[in-house]
Amino acid sequence: MPASSHHDIPSLQLVDICKAYGPVRVLNQARISVRQGEVVALMGANGAGKSTLAKIAAGVVEPDNGQILVAGKEVRLASPRIARQHGIVIVHQSTNELGAPGLSVAENLVLDDLCAGTFGTLAGKRKVKQRAKAVAAGIGLELDIEQDFEELGPAHRQLVAIARAVATKAAVLILDEPTASLSAGEAARLFAVVDRLRGLGVGILYISHRLEDIRRLADRIVVLRNGRIVANQVCPLDLPAAIKAMIGRDLDAIGREHKGPSSGKAVLTLRQVRLLPGAPKFDLTVATGQVLALTGALGSGKSRLLGAIFGLTRIVEGEIVLSERIWQPRGPQEAIAAGVFMAGEDRWRSSLLPPATPGGDIAGTIAFPHRRRWFPTGLVDESREQLAAQQSIRALGIRCRSSRDTLDLLSGGNQQKVVIARWQAASYRLLLLDEPFQGVDVGARRDLITAIRTGPPDSATLVATSDVEEALEVADLVAVMRNHTVAGLYDLRNGDSASFLAAISVVEHDETSDLERAVL
Amino acid sequence: MASSSRGRGTLSETADVSLSGDSNTSMDPHRVTVPTASESHLSSEVRLSGTTEEVRRAPGIGYFLGRYAIFFVLAVLIFFFQSREPAFFRINNLLSVLQSVAVVALLGIGVTVTLAVDGFDLSVGSIAAFTLMLTSYAMVVLQFNAAQTVVLALLTGAMIGLLNGLLIVWLRIPDLLATLGTMFLLAGLQLIPSAGRSITVGLNLPDGSVATGSFDPAFLALGRSKLWGSVPLPVVIVALLACLFWFLMEKTRWGRVFYAVGGNETAAYLAGAAVKRYRILAYVISATLAALGGIFVAARVGRGDVFAGSSLLLDSVAAALIGFAVLNQRRANVVGTAVGAVFVGIVLNGLTMLNVPYYTQDFVKGLVLVGALALTFGIGRGRR
Fold it and tell me: What residue in A sits closest to B43 (Cα-Cα)?
């Protein structure tokens, strides 16, 4: 190994990492390195293997094959603790795992010391506060350290976790989707901290698919697709090329794949709709046979729009027209009766029943919303229910033993297929799907997309997804949402894919500059 | 790697976990714990539970034990009591067991319905006791006839249930607290009209006068008459109601909605269920059945005894919870509750016949309840 100078040896190097769970290869000869004071952005679609790679680097998961080198020396990271001893610390995505509620911020800041027993036997309040202040100062964090950790917002939790990580003299800090639950202003604070750490010589592996973050922070972009590294860009960064690599196919081809009717009858029309007080008004139309994807960052109003159409919330202003009639549903019951169906985000919260519940099996789950029509006498008609379930299982290729399986026996992809099948088991006018590919593997996603694209005649489908790739794959039209309004509409059938991607970058860029102005 | 050689179900599940790790917000217990588990051997164990392979295995002895344990224990108990006291298995004794079981089962069915919507009705015992006093007062003091009394009692029961439901659904008081409140409220309220005394014919009223009414014979017949010469009327009515509620809860779409509301309220709402209405209805059903139970007690004893019905809550809750274990349902169910009520009745009757002191009864009931719960949640758990 040519070690020309001390500075050239990366702080962390992962070489030819392979990892499989059974026959599924999650990582295939993946290589990545992080140098001192470098921010490496790791991009990839859902299921590309980003998180697995990060977990391998942090000692959470061990690779099947490959080498891990810390400062040029091969090491085995058998546990997060050993990784930390080597100076590699991960800050997890979920804000629930970032600290201990019930303890004060100060106690959380010195939690590693307290847990490891390196704090000393006496953990008096003064000593804790003193140390905590030092830890917070390490990243220039200023907040009331005596309040309960529970009272902190997601951004501060994130920052406390980062301060903790830095205090352990981390050489490499892994941030897994750190801005996923942050507002724009909070993200700006995080960026400032990342800049500061870069200045201190900490190497940062920054996992995100938010272009805004990447544009702002990255010195280098590494793109992961299906477990392989497919791009490794240094400055100047070419984001559209990175996205193309992430999606891994010709953008023009996407347009050709979609051949929905270009001018069907309007199923749903939104006129001068204002979703929230203060948000700009917008128009939107979906016609028969069309699949329209709503995409945009978390909190851009996608779910709220779907909720308004399904009768969960009211719009502030404007009108919603469904098949030429004003549409003001008072709740799901009315919406379902009128043929407007919705599968909510997070299937275990919004759709599925616990296993011990009667009607919690595949057949029961599918039948439940249609119970009035299928069981008009009130008596549950088993054969009707079974028939529908069998059809769904065949149509979507749901892998199960029988239609009486409870949902916990199925894999995530098959669970999601049941959720989609439930709403496609009856004829509808409008199908609303909120993040239908959440926690779904690549193969199942393909089946789901096929199912979504084959709705009943004279129906339309609205899919909300924060993932650009998913939007491109499933939709004929893509509406980009920002600040609770539609910021742009792109017709993929007319080869708008490229302009859509460009627009996405521009939109997010605008947001960043707005935000920087606001912070200053 | 420990996880590399598992069966089919494991693989798909594992793949899903790893592939979705970066945006996983699922609430499924398996799926949340796995990606963050730091020891890979541990996480592979977690994955194993709930795979299709495990269920594909032939049902083992634990399965049958879990499914039929209650019946087995019941048979052993009957055999034991019979061997010690030959009078136990006589038809008359068994019918008297059923007579005492009927009211418990009725209240238990109400509790079952509230458990199905993931609630709990602690006030059933008090409602029955309150109804006992109310019916006595209505006939003895207000001189109502049997029909008027029954209608008044059932309507009052329904109103109390409505109150419970509204407290829980509108004011969002946790169900246990709301019904606990109602329980104390009714326990206190039933004492006021008679100034704390039991209501009998010729009761001295607080204003000094003497009550002139009496129990309507038609009313007493409700609790005392027997069909076919031996089967008490309440037993027949409760058996019919049990069948009705079994049918409602297990075989109709309304039953599905009750259980769906209890299983996942959000999912039920998003699938078009009138969640609040069903929740309130569950408490109305529970309270109305409890009021009917109170009527049966009043009709049998023929006086408004202040302390009657004090053990009804414990017995009916025990019946409903023992019902979880019957046929390994692991949820509140009407058949289970009926079996649970019979179980409790047989245990108490048998112990009484063996001259076991009465003051040990609550202890024995508690023991039975804890044992049944351990059976339900302990033995069968691996199969989930």
Answer: A61
